[in-house]
Amino acid sequence: MTGHFPPPPARGCSDTPVLKERGQHEVFCGLTGIIWLHRKMQDAFFLVVGSRTCAHLLQSAAGVMIFAEPRFATAILEETDLAGMADAQEELDRVVTQLLERRPDIRQLFLVGSCPSEVIKLDLGRAAERMSAQFAPRVRVLNYSGSGIETTFTQGEDACLAAMVPVLPDTDSRELLLVGALPDVVEQQALDLLEAMGIGPVRVLPAQSVEDDYGIGPNTVFALTQPFLSDTHAALTRRGARHIAAPFPFGEEGTTAWLSAVAAEFDVPQDLFESVTAAPRARARKAVSQASEGLRDRSVFFFPDSQLEIPLARFLTRECGMAAVEVGVPFLHRAIMSPDLDLLAEGPTLAEGQDVDKQLARCRAARPDLTVCGLGLANPLEAEGMATKWAIELVFTPVHFYEQAGDLAGLFSRPLRRRGLLKLEAAE
Amino acid sequence: MKLTVWTYEGPPHVGAMRVATGMKGLHYVLHAPQGDTYADLLFTMIERRDHRPPVTYTTFQARDLGADTADLFKTACLDAYDRFQPEAIIVGASCTAELIQDDPGGMSETLGLPVPVIPLELPSYQRKENFGADETFFQICRHLARPVEKTARITCNLIGPTALGFRHRDDITELTGLLLEMGIEVNVVAPMTARPSDIARLGAAHFNVLMYPETGESACRWMERELGLPFTKTVPIGVGATRDFVAEVAALTGVAATLDDTRLRLPWYSASVDSTYLTGKRVFLFGDGTHVAAAARIARDEMGFEVVGMGCYNREQARLIRSLAKDYGVEALITDDYLEVERRIEDLAPEMILGTQMERHIGKRLGIPCAVISAPVHVQDFPARYSPQMGIEGANVIFDTWVHPLVMGLEEHLLHMFRADFEFHDDAGASHHGGKATELADTETGGPAPQTPRRFNGKMKEDRAASSVEVVWLPAAEKELKKIPFFVRGKARRNTEVFAAERGVEEISVDTLYEAKAHYAR
């Protein structure tokens, strides 16, 4: 299975001590997750209860999407809301009623907590329960926190999915659950591959619509397609479901290993597995080798952002021949990440959390060939002569599974190719 | 609580960041939760700055809440001083930190830093970005500016430009040149480009040019009172305003009102016959008060448009816009709710919108041409090329910017009309490639009416429904129709049919044709 890749390293990064830092974090808060989640859940509306800052963040992160009648908004707290608590619940009722009247197509409403709403201890859980009763059966109202004080970037998706798990019905049937919001095209590819191996029925969390609800129970097994889902992992485990541990499906190796773990769980014969995966594996291999030209023997440095950093470092080092200098993650969940840590050869510094100025100093000292970082750091580092790849694109762009493996490598090789192409200095 | 999707302005601490990022040698320590660093990318991406904004965030998390956050703030302050060695520090709280009441001002005082530490009180739940910028700059001046000896020559300060300001970079250049031609040198430009040490010598100037009241008025009023610096009231955007500005400066200083307008092209471009079609174009204006007020004058007096509505999102300028709207005989719209703006635009059905990024999208939705005149703006409105709004070149830039979408509107309109023409329809092929024009099968047999100007789109469906009555062209009318130039024939045909259908007329005669023409004439 690993014939095309270096053998698994004798010593992976599982035992590597992790540099834990706290200080200024240059990261998004969990509210940002709304921007891709609302595209995925087509009958859901996300109502942030927060400040003007929250609305401004969503607007800045959503870019031009804000104009396409998005299914998210902010209930901005005003002075009067801060004065007395009873008032705030009434105000929230008023805003939600107004919203649901305007958008009768909405079937699920998420009340999303923010830093201000958490700090004033506005009880959104109770509000969600009350409203669920009030608007049942047409609308289901749930609550989770996307606040910066509790969640970092993609952890917002985790908090959202974890909030959905308890309300799913019970079942005893043996079903596979894929957990994590994927672009539609990628999700379909995954479902097709699993179907070709005779694995089913397969459910997806989050489902497109509240109508697609399914049950969870002791015979449910689930596979994570995204690494940032630790709370969802815990919530599913509490319902009796069992996790299929696997590396994350990035690149040919990651996808094959991920599929292989699922196939083993469902006793798929080896020859069937080979016949289903052979052609897409060959395509992925070819695409990666083309797109990763220019990445070989180059060094890469990851600033923390999405928790995708470890599996991506594994893909870049093993399939594209890069060397990792430092892999920063906002949060490291050992149990979920260990298959990827085992495959990532010892060497890079693993850092959890951040003190951005210290990390910048390390990055400057290392002079990596490519730095993966957020948009607040990218242009300043480019101006210092360092090539960067802005990380947020890795969350929005289809990058999982076989057909996207070449695109994934391309995202990292493009900035380096561009630096080679631009001749902006005077000829000597 | 207020239900909001789009906000014209960010929270007030973003205004403070705009001041800090515009300046040099100043550092902002912001007590804020993890995540508030999102604002950095406004500067690094939209404005394409090549360095990080000089802001240190405490980024407290849930586990820090309690006594810990105060320590976090002090540590962040000390670290920031050690690392960046600024000449002065401003400290403040973002909306969440405001709720936990750590008092950054008081805490920073106890640290005994060897540079001025300026505390900011920015009420996040009442005020917004522009207030934040204005207040921050005012506090900086109040703490750092001192009476100093005036310069021997006549000099002035340019007050108000900040980071993330709409065309602030080039407005500074344009005004500096314009003043230099009058023999007036610029003492300090602030906040943009200034250091804290420059703020200390603001008083050496003879007067202040208040470029942007939104971000500089409080400071100018304070300097007028405390440093004896008068400030200009005219914002030199547009030809008339620029001339008035020069006159105002001349009156303030006693120098001659010199204005080199050899490069000024707006007046002639606007007077040339090609611009005749601009006459009476119905425009709607929205944005910040300053740019809207300036645009209204240009629109009416320099472009010959008809201003059918105006408004602003910053309530600090509400009085200005209300009184101006009265002069123009229109109703002022003071709101920060884009849905209200959209409703007003729909009601007024203008032929052009001059607004912000948001109005650009409203215009796109409604099929109305739009040009951007004010923040908030997106990355394309921080252009690489020189494009001021103020002064001589600013007027040239404004003429091009405003006319562009209209010319394109006209082009699109013509293309739509030509679409049904025998030479231009989709299947005809390009004549210079030897393609032969083929007859469009249903041109003459009452097929789909050619597309008409986009502003009719909204009504199109009703019109179609109304014309479900079978309308027949009498031979004489048909013949008359063919005398109409081909590029307006489609429009004439449709207008006539709609006109007839609405009145229950089933046969179109030559008279019907001309009655319809008279009806639609303007």
From TrEMBL, chain A:
<dbReference type="GO" id="GO:0005524">
    <property type="term" value="F:ATP binding"/>
</dbReference>
<dbReference type="Pfam" id="PF00148">
    <property type="entry name" value="Oxidored_nitro"/>
</dbReference>
<keyword id="KW-0408">Iron</keyword>
<dbReference type="GO" id="GO:0019685">
    <property type="term" value="P:photosynthesis, dark reaction"/>
</dbReference>
<dbReference type="InterPro" id="IPR000510">
    <property type="entry name" value="Nase/OxRdtase_comp1"/>
</dbReference>
<keyword id="KW-0411">Iron-sulfur</keyword>
<keyword id="KW-0077">Bacteriochlorophyll biosynthesis</keyword>
<comment type="similarity">
    <text>Belongs to the BchN/ChlN family.</text>
</comment>
<comment type="pathway">
    <text>Porphyrin-containing compound metabolism; bacteriochlorophyll biosynthesis (light-independent).</text>
</comment>
<dbReference type="InterPro" id="IPR050293">
    <property type="entry name" value="LIPOR_BchN/ChlN"/>
</dbReference>
<keyword id="KW-0067">ATP-binding</keyword>
<feature type="binding site">
    <location>
        <position position="29"/>
    </location>
    <ligand>
        <name>[4Fe-4S] cluster</name>
    </ligand>
</feature>
<dbReference type="GO" id="GO:0016636">
    <property type="term" value="F:oxidoreductase activity, acting on the CH-CH group of donors, iron-sulfur protein as acceptor"/>
</dbReference>
<dbReference type="GO" id="GO:0051539">
    <property type="term" value="F:4 iron, 4 sulfur cluster binding"/>
</dbReference>
<feature type="binding site">
    <location>
        <position position="115"/>
    </location>
    <ligand>
        <name>[4Fe-4S] cluster</name>
    </ligand>
</feature>
<feature type="domain" description="Nitrogenase/oxidoreductase component 1">
    <location>
        <begin position="29"/>
        <end position="388"/>
    </location>
</feature>
<dbReference type="InterPro" id="IPR005970">
    <property type="entry name" value="Protochl_reductN"/>
</dbReference>
<dbReference type="GO" id="GO:0036070">
    <property type="term" value="P:light-independent bacteriochlorophyll biosynthetic process"/>
</dbReference>
<keyword id="KW-0149">Chlorophyll biosynthesis</keyword>
<comment type="subunit">
    <text>Protochlorophyllide reductase is composed of three subunits; BchL, BchN and BchB. Forms a heterotetramer of two BchB and two BchN subunits.</text>
</comment>
<keyword id="KW-0479">Metal-binding</keyword>
<keyword id="KW-0602">Photosynthesis</keyword>
UniProtKB/TrEMBL annotation, chain B:
<dbReference type="Pfam" id="PF00148">
    <property type="entry name" value="Oxidored_nitro"/>
</dbReference>
<protein>
    <recommendedName>
        <fullName>Light-independent protochlorophyllide reductase subunit B</fullName>
        <ecNumber>1.3.7.7</ecNumber>
    </recommendedName>
</protein>
<dbReference type="Pfam" id="PF08369">
    <property type="entry name" value="PCP_red"/>
</dbReference>
<comment type="subunit">
    <text>Protochlorophyllide reductase is composed of three subunits; BchL, BchN and BchB. Forms a heterotetramer of two BchB and two BchN subunits.</text>
</comment>
<dbReference type="GO" id="GO:0051539">
    <property type="term" value="F:4 iron, 4 sulfur cluster binding"/>
</dbReference>
<keyword id="KW-0602">Photosynthesis</keyword>
<keyword id="KW-0408">Iron</keyword>
<keyword id="KW-0004">4Fe-4S</keyword>
<keyword id="KW-0411">Iron-sulfur</keyword>
<feature type="binding site">
    <location>
        <position position="36"/>
    </location>
    <ligand>
        <name>[4Fe-4S] cluster</name>
    </ligand>
</feature>
<keyword id="KW-0077">Bacteriochlorophyll biosynthesis</keyword>
<feature type="domain" description="Nitrogenase/oxidoreductase component 1">
    <location>
        <begin position="12"/>
        <end position="406"/>
    </location>
</feature>
<feature type="domain" description="Light-independent protochlorophyllide reductase subunit B-like C-terminal">
    <location>
        <begin position="473"/>
        <end position="517"/>
    </location>
</feature>
<dbReference type="GO" id="GO:0016730">
    <property type="term" value="F:oxidoreductase activity, acting on iron-sulfur proteins as donors"/>
</dbReference>
<comment type="similarity">
    <text>Belongs to the ChlB/BchB/BchZ family.</text>
</comment>
<keyword id="KW-0560">Oxidoreductase</keyword>
<feature type="binding site">
    <location>
        <begin position="409"/>
        <end position="410"/>
    </location>
    <ligand>
        <name>substrate</name>
    </ligand>
</feature>
<dbReference type="InterPro" id="IPR050152">
    <property type="entry name" value="ChlB/BchB/BchZ"/>
</dbReference>
<comment type="pathway">
    <text>Porphyrin-containing compound metabolism; bacteriochlorophyll biosynthesis (light-independent).</text>
</comment>
<dbReference type="InterPro" id="IPR000510">
    <property type="entry name" value="Nase/OxRdtase_comp1"/>
</dbReference>
<feature type="region of interest" description="Disordered">
    <location>
        <begin position="430"/>
        <end position="461"/>
    </location>
</feature>
<keyword id="KW-0479">Metal-binding</keyword>
